[in-house]
Amino acid sequence: MDAATKPKLRVATTSLAGCFGCHMSFLDMDEHIFELAQLVEIDRSPLTDLKHCGPCDIGLIEGGVCNAENVHVLREFRANCKTLIAVGACAINGGLPAQRNHLDLGACLQEVYQFREGVTDAAVPDDPELPLLLDKVHPIHEVVRVDYFIPGCPPSGETIWKFLTDLIAGRTPRLPYSLLRFD
Fold first, then answer.
1. Domains of the chain (ranges plus CATH)?
2. Tens digit of pLDDT for each residue in 139-174?
3. Which of 57, 111, 152, 161 allows an S-S link to 9, with CB 3.0 to 4.6 Å?
4. Is residue 161 classed exposed, middle or buried when 0-12, 13-18 and 19+ CB atoms within 10 A define those classes?
5. 125 vs 46: CA distance, rounded Å
6. What does the H/E/C string look like for the chain?
7. Cα separation of 149 and 165, whole Å?
């Protein structure tokens, strides 16, 4: 089978607990998105609005793990992706959502929902439709195996493009220092 008839790799993305900034960077690849569409088939992503990931070659995931739904989505995503890439600080180390890790979760929820100035007769939400919060926010590698990490908060679109094109071409991804950013 030559390169012209070789099936395209399937790429999917998803987000857990975070700000969605890494997905914004993915979209900030600008014209590279058109080039990417020539190289791969895009499964679940903000571009497709699919809610579940089918079998994929490459999965990019942003955000930390802060609730039971995040655990479910992450495990399902990992099971469907041959290669999993943690994108951004939240996926790699918990990021900003993990700042609650040094607080007692119950006391934190009471402060937000019950004891705030101006709040009367309020309670911590306990609707069964809400995902159960974990005591701590976890980076994704504490829940599933991760193959690669793209650091940054968020990494730039150019960084994600460079990483993906290296991987798609069969090269070990290498990011020059100039593409690493943590602001």
1. 9-99+134-172 (3.40.50.700)
2. 999 999 999 999 999 999 999 999 999 999 999 999
3. 57
4. buried
5. 29
6. CCCCCCCCEEEEEEECECCCHHHHHHHCCCCHHHHHHHHEEECCCCCCCCCCCCCEEEEEEECEEEEHHHHHHHHHHHHHEEEEEEEHHHHHHCCHHHHHHHCCHHHHHHHHHCCCCCCCCCCCCCCCCCCCEEEEEECHHHCCCCCEEECCCCCCHHHHHHHHHHHHCCCCCCCCHHHCCCC
7. 15
Residue type, position 73, single letter: V
